[in-house]
């Protein structure tokens, strides 16, 4: 598939380059350096124009019949399915992922649209007890306009998981995708929904840098921001949103632990650890950053992880011939490499990897990792397996909980009861027994404490809480006089 074929189907006019204040920018394929397309870059003035249009469109959207809304989401799901191969390959190319990763993003996008199709037809409130002659209701009402700021790693999923339910709940949405992945993280979604019949102006895409992001967060017409990205940017968004009294949903990653107990099957444990650490080059907010293994099994696990790291093929993920693709850009590659080098200098042992060719970072295994090393204390966001040994279950729990925030944790053991006992003590937003940490099924609440987020969750039953607010409504049979 070439770029021309993709652009012929995708409607990039959602953000025409000439209409945006900061000119244009090329979108590069990480694996080849090829220019995939050119998009406009928004500034603060563009954001102000977009929010005014979106707010006007939202006022009309709330009166659309629920069945008509549901039909739009079903048509969007069908479009994702109809153009599955084309879209999946583009996602893989733009993100540097392997083709199955791109396919996963499009498959989940279709599912999220189908899930959203059910929302307008669900009950949206409840009847409350009240005095005779008065009906008291609590109903869910949309915020109005939701700003979605999406990241580069899984841009389609991490944007549409907010876009679809926010629209279904009655909001308008403005997406500010990462400028490295503006198509997968925004323009592709807008094109699908436009062709599905979503009213014009209701969903807009503004690729942009910090200026556009801050303008979106501070705009008075945007009462809610949904952000996925780094803790540093999340703190800035949280501060701005708090100053402007806005609702904010933050999903920031954190440091996740995979605990391997001494009765685990070693081969299976190594397979889980490799997948959790290396999949999509470790650029996953749920990645198994820290692999805790009992000291009696540590050497065996190291050997198996080294074997996997040295044999997993690295190259152009879209080719379908490799297990790992490139990291997103030079800045990310250099950060990963510095974390590895600093930790080796602090006493960690480099067992495999630690080298790169261009943006292709070799799967890396570090042993002897301990608190105080950067790879223990920080989220690596790269293909690095950090192995930490422990002596007792209590020590494993203490090490796993030594973090500033964790989205996911996991425990592998032959004894479900023992694994559950350990899992109940882990301070994470999600805990997986006899699995690794990279898990999401779209219908589960997704979020975590500390720097993993701000205690909010998205997905499944959490979506109504996130994208709407309660409104109390009372109805009297007839107006009555008061003592005054």
Largest sheet: 7 strands, mixed
- The order of strands across the largest sheet is 12-15-16-11-10-17-18
State the distance separating the first and last CA atoms.
76 Å
The global form is: globular
The residue-averaged pLDDT reads 93
The total count of strands amounts to 19
Helix coverage percent = 40-55%
- What radius of gyration results from the CA coordinates? 24 Å
Count of helical stretches: 16
Beta-strand share of residues: 15-25%
**Contiguous uncertain segments of 5+ residues:** 1-8, 12-18
Structural class: alpha/beta
Polypeptide structure, described:
The chain has 484 residues and is an alpha/beta fold. The protein is 40% helix and 20% strand. It is built from 16 helices and 19 strands. It has helices at residues 3-9, 44-61, 66-82, 84-95, 99-118, 155-168, 183-196, 210-218, 231-243, 266-278, 295-311, 330-345, 374-377, 393-400, 416-423, 462-467; strands at 24-28, 35-40, 125-128, 134-142, 145-150, 172-177, 203-205, 224-228, 247-251, 257-260, 290-294, 349-352, 356-357, 360-361, 364-367, 384-390, 408-412, 430-433, 468-476. The strands form five sheets. It has a seven-stranded mixed sheet, with helices on both faces. Strands 7-6-5-8-9 form a five-stranded parallel sheet, with helices on both faces. It is globular and about 80 Å long. 53% of the residues are buried.
């Amino acid at each position: 598939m070439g770029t021309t074929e993709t652009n012929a189907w995708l409607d990039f006019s959602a953000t025409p380059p000439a209409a945006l204040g900061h000119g244009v920018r090329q979108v590069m394929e990480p694996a080849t350096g090829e220019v995939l397309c050119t998009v406009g870059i928004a500034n603060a003035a563009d954001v102000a124009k977009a929010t005014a249009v979106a707010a006007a469109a939202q006022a009309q959207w709330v009166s659309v019949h629920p069945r008509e809304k549901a039909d739009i989401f079903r048509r969007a799901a069908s479009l994702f399915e109809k153009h599955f191969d084309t879209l999946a390959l583009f996602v893989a190319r733009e993100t540097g992922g392997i083709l199955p990763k791109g396919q996963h993003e499009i498959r989940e996008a279709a599912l999220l649209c189908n899930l959203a199709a059910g929302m307008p037809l669900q009950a949206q409130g409840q009847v409350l007890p009240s005095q005779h002659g008065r009906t008291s209701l609590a109903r869910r009402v949309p915020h109005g306009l939701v700003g979605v700021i999406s990241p580069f790693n899984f841009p389609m999923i991490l944007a549409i998981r907010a876009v679809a339910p926010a629209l279904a709940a009655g909001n308008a949405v403005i997406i500010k995708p990462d400028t490295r992945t503006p198509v997968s993280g925004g323009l592709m979604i807008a094109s699908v929904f436009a062709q599905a019949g979503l009213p014009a102006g209701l969903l807009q895409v503004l690729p942009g840098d910090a200026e556009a992001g801050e303008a979106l967060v501070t705009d008075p017409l945007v009462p809610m921001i949904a952000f996925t990205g780094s803790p540093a940017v999340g703190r800035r968004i949280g501060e701005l949103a708090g100053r402007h009294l806005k609702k904010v949903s933050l999903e920031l990653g954190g440091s996740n632990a995979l605990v391997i107990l001494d009765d685990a099957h070693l081969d299976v444990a190594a397979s889980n650890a490799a997948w959790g650490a290396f999949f999509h080059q470790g650029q996953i907010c749920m990645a198994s950053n820290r692999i805790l293994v009992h000291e009696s099994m540590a050497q065996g696990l190291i050997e198996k992880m080294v074997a996997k790291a040295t044999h997993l093929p690295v190259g152009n993920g879209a080719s379908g011939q490799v297990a790992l693709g490139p990291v997103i850009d030079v800045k990310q590659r250099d950060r990963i490499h510095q974390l590895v080098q600093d930790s080796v200098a602090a006493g960690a042992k480099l067992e495999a990897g630690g080298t790169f060719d261009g943006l292709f970072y070799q799967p890396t295994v570090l042993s002897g990792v301990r608190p105080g090393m950067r790879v223990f204390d920080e989220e690596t966001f790269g293909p690095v397996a950090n192995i930490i040994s422990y002596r007792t279950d209590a020590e494993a729990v203490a090490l796993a909980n030594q973090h500033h925030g964790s989205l996911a944790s996991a425990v592998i053991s032959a004894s479900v009861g023992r694994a559950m006992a350990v899992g109940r003590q882990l301070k994470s937003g999600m805990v997986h027994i006899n699995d690794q940490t990279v898990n999401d099924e779209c219908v589960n609440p997704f979020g975590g404490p500390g720097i993993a987020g701000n205690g909010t969750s998205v997905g499944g039953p959490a979506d109504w809480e996130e994208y709407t607010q309660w409104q109390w409504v009372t109805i009297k049979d007839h107006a009555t006089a008061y003592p005054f």
